[in-house]
Amino acid sequence: GNSVTQMEGPVTLSEEAFLTINCTYTATGYPSLFWYVQYPGEGLQLLLKATKADDKGSNKGFEATYRKETTSFHLEKGSVQVSDSAVYFCAPDYGGSQGNLIFGKGTKLSVKP
Amino acid sequence: DAGVTQSPTHLIKTRGQHVTLRCSPISGHKSVSWYQQVLGQGPQFIFQYYEKEERGRGNFPDRFSARQFPNYSSELNVNALLLGDSALYLCASSWTDRDTEAFFGQGTRLTVV
Q1: Chain centroid to CA A84: how far?
Q2: CB-CB under 8 Å, A43 with B45
Q3: pLDDT digits (tens, 9 = 90+) for A82-105
Q4: I need a surface site. Which of A54, A55, B5, B69 has the fewest CB within 10 A?
């Protein structure tokens, strides 16, 4: 079946450090790719998305590029802030219904001042 | 405009009891999906409803059921609660059943004791 693998956490960084969270997905079909963020005690918020190969999604300084050849969608940010502390979920959507939106296990990011 | 709203925000139930969780989608959205998020894991798909019909069901026992009302709000029911049902239950809404972008509520934290 379809699946997604993302880097295990927790990840602890100092403020202004560079962030990379790796994500790879199974290559069945041509999924849309999403990153969701979950701040402490809250639900999920869409962070960014990409719907076709080589597309770059970006938001709030975060970026991820749809790499079809490596089936990857790594999340990056050049300079993290304390307010970025949250859990990040990679989620390919294989289409057809919400049941085909598959979430990774999440990567907890802690940013220290 | 209001986002996806869920009620209650927290509740505690005893093993064997029944629980009903409620969700109101974003105005105009006709699809509602339910997810279970166990601590430390990504959300797992439970159900999707669109235009009051079930459009998808995840790998959950028959103790879990749901329905959607004419105003597109939805209820998730869980019977004979087990300790393992303790989780954050998330509701997501989208315009149609085939939308690639879902908007999530804050969730209901269910604790079974």
Answers
A1: 13
A2: no
A3: 999 999 999 998 877 777 889 999
A4: A54
Q: State yes or no: pLDDT of A110 exceeds 70.
A: yes
Chain centroid, CA A110 distance in Å: 15
Contact A99 B45 (CB under 8 A): yes
Q: Which helix (H) or strand (E) holds A108?
A: strand A107-112
B95 close contact with A: CB closer than 8 A: no
Q: Does A88 touch chain B (CB under 8 A)?
A: no
The arrangement of strands across the sheet holding B5-7 comes to B5-7, B19-24, B74-78, B64-68
To the nearest whole Å, the CA of B79 is away from the closest chain A CA by 22
Q: Which of A20, A1, A25 is nearest to A90 (CA)?
A: A25
For B46, residues 6+ apart whose C-beta sits below 8 A from its C-beta are: B33, B34, B35, B36, B57, B58, B60, B64, B66, B76
Look at residue B12 and give its three-state secondary structure.
strand
